[in-house]
Amino acid sequence: MTIPTALHTDATTPASLNWQIAPLDRTTEADIQARIDQKTKPLGALGQLEQLALQIALVQQKNRISIERPLMLVFAGDHGIAEEGVSIAPSSVTQQMVLNFLAGGAAINCFCRTNHLPLKVIDAGIKYEIKPAPTALIVQRIAAGTRNLAVEPAMTIAQAEQALRLGATLAEQEIVAGSNLLAFGEMGIANSSSAAAILAALSGAPVTQCVGKGTGINDEQLAKKIALVSQGVARITDQSPLNILAELGGFEIAQICGAMLATAQAQKLILVDGFIVSVAALLAVHISPHARAYMIFAHKSEEAGHQLLLQLLNANPLLDLGLRLGEGTGAALALPLIQAATSFYNQMATFESAGVTV
Length: 358
What we know:
alpha/beta, 14 helices, 6 strands, about 45% helix
């Protein structure tokens, strides 16, 4: 259960999906660290904020680091496995929550407003299409939800590739518009089943370690969820990330993964939310390991599999608030810490400039 060290592509991988993601240029790391150490504070006294400032400075390679036009992208999709009763709500709730996002009434809307973080909502393939689509909704539908991963592939390889490309294109457009940090959220009834299946298939960990209660199912539903996810994972023979995505994934997870890869390729920052989005991040890292260096992990979710995910990704999340909502809420809450890291790096005096002797 380790992060791969080589690009997982093969002869059947389309050239357009052969991501060209550069490793971080670490030649300036010692100078950046010295700048941080010379600030008017004891060494390491700002804890994770210092590590965060170092990461941002390595990504941006500028004397003055900044967060420009940060943007929250919430991708929504439905899952065929929801028909098995593995969630507390039916698939119709995905559409209802998308409408809630568009009306500004969800937790993610509240947190984005509080932190002046623009929000865009994407229909990646919800079961019940919103017609007519409001102008605020970005429609990138692959299909009306995936098929039931417990008994058949969730999507075709062609659909998985299409979803990756659509996510990538959207990220590229936002980066051209001026964003240097993209945050990711999701919505989709039963998407924790899909995410757990992907995690188990990629990591080789027991399904019981990957599956949790999601938004609050009972013990009987949990046992059924474990059995169905196990059934889906047992079907996997081709261990390539693209095949695992097609067999077990969701359209929203695939589009997030593609958007993350495009963001890393553009050498911009990726703000990762909780369990579902972290699975998309794990997929991205399996496809192109250099993508990991551009990722900031917002929080530690209460979902059982997220602890394993964070270990696999060598991630030290910024927050631990007991969240298990999704939507990108943890990422939105973490944004002020990222902005604080840039602030101290740019503005905090050094011992020399402040005339402080120690």
